[in-house]
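SAMPLE LOG
Freezer: B-3
Tube label: C17
Construct: single chain, 175 aa
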Amino acid sequence: MAALFVMPNRRDPIVLKNAWYLITHIDFFDAVTKLPRLADAPDLMVTLDKLFGDEGCISAAHTATAVEVMLRMAEHLSTAIPYGRHVAVADCDQFARLLNGLNLLLAYVAQLSARLAHQVDTATGADLSALSADERTALTTALATASCRLEEAAGLFKEAHLAAGDRAAMHARRR
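STRUCTURE (predicted):
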């Protein structure tokens, strides 16, 4: 059976560090119930919170499941968005919210990549003893570079969000 680790201080989880590339003028979760959602969404959120929230465990199985959920949602968005014309994203507000969510996702992945680079560099993460010193150095460099580029991408989504937000505000004033 796989080992489970319950975070002893999960009430104070590792959250996003405030950074230049984050959208900070609005709270993504404040508008959760204001936009269209599936009827099953509240139940799904309860299930996800049980698995991955404050009381959740940390294990290789949890990590694998989290990655699978993340990829399925990304696949859904990649499939749905090309249909355009109000099908997947109804209006400026929903478009801005999508950009906000993508900004947050990229920010999380950027900061996670930096933590992985640190763990590889200091041998404090996964057992990578099968890798040579040169391979570990190359891996550390690749992860650190990915982190920097993901920060840049998150910053570009922040710029896009600000542009879409301004457009949404102008659209609202015209009504």
